[in-house]
Design brief:
Its EC number is 3.5.4.26. This protein is mainly alpha-helical and 72 residues long. The chain has three helices and no strands.
């Protein structure tokens, strides 16, 4: 890019934007550096270890924020 006259800025590794961009692109970086895919798993269970009520009805066991993060 520099050879084409485009200004290039490189952030220090501890810069908040650098950290955020790595997290945003973690799948790409993992594949390029480790040659393996990045897998993220979220698990939740109620204190008694179940995920439904005794009658079989579904019940949320995570917060709205946690569910939104898990589906990002």
């Amino acid at each position: 890019m520099r050879a084409a006259g485009i200004e290039v800025l490189v952030l220090p590794p501890d810069d908040p934007l650098a950290i955020a961009s790595r997290e945003l692109n973690i799948g790409f970086f993992s594949r390029m550096i480790r040659k393996t895919p990045w897998v993220r798993m979220k698990m939740a269970a109620s204190p008694d270890g179940v995920t439904a009520l005794p009658n079989g009805a579904s019940q949320w066991i995570t917060s709205l924020e946690a569910r939104a993060d898990g589906h990002a």
